[in-house]
Amino acid sequence: MGPYSDMEGGLFRPYLGPAHHATIERLTEWMTQAGLSVRLDGAGTLIGRYEGSVPNAPALVIGSHIDSVRDGGRYDGMLGVVLGIEAVAVLHAESLRLPYAIEVVGFGDEEGSRFPVSMLTSRAFAGTLGGQDLTLCDAAGVRLDDALAAFGLSSRSLPDAARSPADLRAYLEVHIEQGPVLEAERRSLGVVDAIAGQYRFQATVRGTAGHAGTMAMSLRRDALAAAAEMVLAIETCGRAGPDDLVATVGRMEVRPGASNVVPGEVVFTLDIRAGNDVVRGRAADAVCAALHQIARRRDVSLDLVRQQDLPATP
């Protein structure tokens, strides 16, 4: 599935994009060949169902996500979907039915690869997607509800994507390790016993733009210099916590973005995660306090908008 990408020379498969659509078509073929009945839910999650020997029994859900961040790994997410299809294909070839149904799912958005929040489709599946999410815009200014319509879906059908817990037996996801722990310990398999909680913020730093050659250093309110100090403060706060606390600035936009202009505005993302929500909350408070202190000292303004708050799963 690596070639299914919306960028040249690398992998980028954003939610509701052309590569997402092409991936759904190919996975639908494979699911059908494996004996699954296939449908797309209201959020764009691909679902293949293999009925069990007991009618209406709760289903075992196997799957992962099919979207990818820019320059993502070709096995990230896709491994869990393809292995689910392969497992059902073996049962189908042997004409075997389990005492419960199996559903193989491919979530369209886990990474937040297009819109500024993550897990849109799995939250729709769980019934926790909020109406405010429909007004989210991507980098091109396209609203989520408009993107759904362009994909052939309707925002009015989103509530129908929610599944009742009574209809589900369990959820199983096989995933690549996105860190070096297992490799360093020479282990081939690890079992996840918790999922970290996550905050996502967008920070906007505003100073005063000016000519790089004529604005004296003593008069500058450089938004980028302030943002750079903020990034270091974020790193310091992250390192001060327990091992499972991480703090990341993954994207930064400098405006006006000219080599001969002192930056007047900087927008950057902030991602804070921890396995314990109390630890995560304290870290977020410490980070926010440090950033505001830097802004006051450097005489720039700072707007911090919390875009997402996903609790840890023990």
From TrEMBL:
One of its GO terms (molecular function) is metal ion binding. InterPro entries: Amidase_Cbmase, Bact_exopeptidase_dim_dom, Peptidase_M20. Keywords: Hydrolase, Manganese, Metal-binding. The keyword Chaperone does not apply. It comes from the Bacteria. The keyword RNA-binding does not apply. Its cofactor is Mn(2+). Homodimer. Belongs to the peptidase M20 family. This is Zn-dependent hydrolase. It comes from Ameyamaea chiangmaiensis.
